[in-house]
Amino acid sequence: MAGKDTRGLEEIVEQHLAGTGWDADREEVARGMYRVIGLDPETSRRRLVLVVPAVTAAVTVEDIEWLVDDAESAGADIVEVTAAGTVTDQARQRADQYNISVEDPDSYQSTGGAGQQRQTQSRGRQQPPQQQSPGVDGGQSPPQQSPGVDSGQRPPRGQASQPRGQMSREGHSNANPAAMLSSGFRPVGGFLYGLLGFILSFTFTTIYFFYRLNEITDGNIDAVLPDEIQAFGWAFYNANMVDITVSAGGASVEVINYLDRIDKLNGVVFYGMIALMLFISGYSVASRVTDPLTGPEGAVAGASVVVGYLPLLAAGTFLFTTEELGATAGPEIGVTLLLWGIIYSVVFGGIGGYLSRGL
C-alpha cells in the first residue's frame, strides 16, 4: 500500500510541470501563496500557476486580478489557479473572463495531464492573428517568443509584487484595508455588545465609587456629592476622562473630577474597569462570528462595539445633567468625550477581538 503523499500542493504542481516537459520553478509571493512558473524549452511558452495550498484559505476576486497583472508582467501564455481550499464564485467568474483555468488539485497528481497539451490561452482581449513570417510556406507561423527570453532559459525569479487581494482565511496576508474593514465590521453585534459594555462599565464603576467614597468619608457621602439624582453617574464620566462642568450664564464656573479631587480614589482602577468591560465585549463580538476571521478582521469585529458604546455615552450627558437656579452641572459632549469614547471602545474592544482569534 502506497504511503500518504506528504508533499505540499505547491511542490506537487512544480513537479507536475517538470514531469510534463516544462522547466519549472516556484516562489512564495505571500505567506501561504505560491506561484509556479514553467517555460516550454521548445516553444518558449510560459505557464503560470497560482497555488494556495491551505485548506482553510479562499481565493478571492482581488487575488485573480493580481494574477492577471502578474501574468501580463511575466509574459505568461497559460494561466491557472489551484487551491486546496475554496475559490469563491465571484473569483471563478472573474477567472473565466480572463481565460484563467481554475484547476482541481488532483489534476496535478499525475504527469502527462491536460496541462501539457493545453492550447495557449489569451487573457482578456483576443489578439489579432499573427502575420505569417516571410519564407514560411502557407503553414502555421513559428511560435512567438516572449520578449527578452531566450529559448530554453528558465523564467526569472525576480520578486513579484504583493497580491492586492485579501486572503480571507488563515494563511493569507497583505489584506486590502477596505476589504478587511467590510469583512470584519459587525454593526449589529457591535451595537448589542457595546450596549452591554456600557451597562457593565457604568454598573461596576458606580458601585465601586460609592463603596470607596463611603469608606473615605465614613458614610458622609452627601458632603461630597450633591443631592440631585443626576450626580449618580458623574463618577462614570470621570472614569471616561470627561469632567463635570458647572456653568452659569453660559460660562463655565467650575470643573469637577472626583478621581482627581479625592486622592484616596485610585483612578487607574476605574479606567481599568471600563477597559476590561470593553475588552470582554469586543472579545464576545468576534468570537461569536461563525465565518473564519484573520487577526486584523477579528480586531475590526471587536472594535465594532463603538457603534453601541459611543452613542450611549453621548446620550448620557443629557440624562446626567442637572439644572437649578439658572446653573447647569453635568458632563458635556465635546472633543474629550468623543475622543476617549472612541479610544476606549475601539482600542480595547479591538484588542479583545484580535485575541479572540488566537485563544
Largest sheet: 5 strands, mixed
Instruction: Name the shape in a single word.
Output: elongated
Share of helix, binned: 40-55%
Rg? 32 Å
Task: Determine the strand fraction and express it as a percent band.
Answer: 15-25%
Strand elements, count: 11
DSSP helical segment count: 12
Number of separate structural domains: 2
Mean pLDDT: 80
Oligomer: single chain
Strands of the widest sheet, in order across it, are: 1-2-3-5-7
Based on helices, strands and strand pairing, what is the structural class?
alpha/beta
List the keywords.
359 residues; alpha/beta; Trna Endonuclease, Chain: A, domain 1; 2 domains; 5-stranded mixed beta sheet; 4-stranded antiparallel beta sheet; 12 helices; elongated; DUF7978; membrane; transmembrane helix; transmembrane
Protein described:
- This protein has helices spanning 9-19, 61-74, 89-97, 114-117, 177-184, 187-216, 234-239, 258-261, 267-287, 295-303, 306-319, 335-356; strands spanning 23-30, 33-39, 46-52, 58-59, 78-83, 86-87, 101-103, 244-248, 251-256, 322-324, 327-331.
- The longest helix is centred in the middle third of the chain and has 30 residues, at 187-216.
- The two termini are 40 Å apart.
- It has two domains: 9-128 and 138-174, 3-Layer(aba) Sandwich (Trna Endonuclease, Chain: A, domain 1), CATH 3.40.1350; 183-356, no CATH class.
- α6 runs antiparallel to α9 and α9 (267-287) crosses α12 (335-356).
- The radius of gyration is 32 Å and the shape is elongated.
- Strands 1-2-3-5-7 form a five-stranded mixed beta sheet, with helices on both faces. Strands 9-8-11-10 form a four-stranded antiparallel beta sheet.
- The protein has 359 residues and is of the alpha/beta class.
- The chain contains twelve helices and eleven strands.
- Keywords: Membrane, Transmembrane, Transmembrane helix.
- This is DUF7978 domain-containing protein.
- The chain crosses the membrane at residues 190-211, 268-286, 298-321, 333-355.
- It comes from Halovenus aranensis.
- Residues 116-153 have a biased composition (Low complexity).
